[in-house]
Amino acid sequence: MGRGKVELKRIENKINRQVTFAKRRNGLLKKAYELSVLCDAEVALIVFSNRGKLFEFCSSSNMLKTLEKYQKCSYSALETTQQTKETEQNNYQEYLKLKARVEVLQLSQRNLLGEDLGPLSTKELEQLENQLEMSLRHIRSTKTQFMLDQLSDLKRKEQMLLESNRALKEQLEECGAESRLQLSWENNGQTIPYDREPAQSESFFQPLQCDYTLQIGYRPFCQEEMSIAAPPQNVSGFFPGWMV
Which of 107, 149, 179, 218 is 20 to 30 A from 89 (CA-CA)? Predict the structure, then answer.
């Protein structure tokens, strides 16, 4: 006859409860040992009786290391979730602070533009007026300094241009003086072009003197002798002395 199904409930009989606990405890410890050997698993078993007596089994040599590993695996996710919640809460608080700050700045900007001035008191309006006056003074001071800087830059550029103009004028004057000097040399005949020979002066060409002592035989008449005394020609056209 087969074994019937046992209803899972607390055994009311104290003796039967103790006997059942002893039997099932030994079976549980045996199953834990078999699981650790067959599957090469790290098993830790802790059992407390109703009287508070401890029964334990650990496949490793140290129960505390197994418990630490169990704590890391079990509570790490919980700690991570808790840290995530704390971070989200802190971020939300920071968001609320920044939102309030932005609203205050927007209201202050509208007040500076002359808007939403109705809720302000007299003291707040005076503070706003003083703030605007200080801002205007600062803006005017910055504008004046900027204009002074621009004026200084323009003066420096003007001085540089004047110096450059003066240098160019000096160079132009030097070039003009050299041109005038060269032109005066050309007018006085001092320049000699490289592609033509220098012209001989008129004093180089002198008429030759007739030296009658150096003439042998035929003696040509010199121009001066002919002009001084020209012998009378014969009617026949022959000079005297030439006829035999």
Answer: 107
8 Å CB contact between 225 and 215: no
Spatial distance between the Cα atoms of 127 and 106, rounded to a whole number of angstroms: 17
pLDDT at residue 214 tops 60: no
Provide mean pLDDT across the span 28-55: 90
Q: What is the pTM of this model?
A: 0.33
Rounded-to-integer distance, Cα 43 and Cα 31, Å: 10
Residue pair 128/111 in contact (Cβ under 8 Å)? The answer is yes
**83 in Cβ contact with 77 (< 8 Å):** no
- Residue scoring higher pLDDT (105 or 193): 105
CA dihedral of residues 17, 22, 28, 32 (deg, nearest 10) = 150
Please answer whether residues 43 and 30 qualify as being in contact, where contact means their C-beta atoms are separated by less than 8 angstroms.
no
Closest CA to 50 of 14, 101, 86: 14
Residues in the chain: 244
The secondary structure element, H or E, covering residue 153 is helix 122-187
List residues bridging with 48 in a β-sheet: 54
Which helix H or strand E contains 95, and what residues bound it? helix 63-112
